[in-house]
Amino acid sequence: MLRYLPFLLILALWIYAFIDCLNTPEEEVKHLPKVVWVIIVLLFGQVLIGPVAWLVAGKVRKAPAVGGRGGGRGRAQWVAPDDNPEFLKSLGDETRRKSAQDPEPEDRTDPDEDPQGRKP
Known about the structure:
By secondary structure, this protein is mainly α. The protein has 4 helices and no strands. The longest helix is centred in the N-terminal third of the chain and has 19 residues.
């Protein structure tokens, strides 16, 4: 089983590079047109030259955020709904709006009717 592992890793890298190349917008492709990169990845995939070249030189890579947790200034960070004061405020506003639109439901039972809804 282990003798197939190198082949499977090469195949996985080849497929990843090919799909990444296809999904990358034309504006983010460096040095060569996108079509040429696709051909390079396909033709030189078995010897790993094409996929490695694409991953190293073919795409504009964004720098990782510095500072770890909470280091990105100006970037919105995900907050759980029960910790988000804006979300909780919107729930309160929605509840008040609904109560203003729909007053308490009236008791629709007729005092002359029995519980099955028939008149005596």
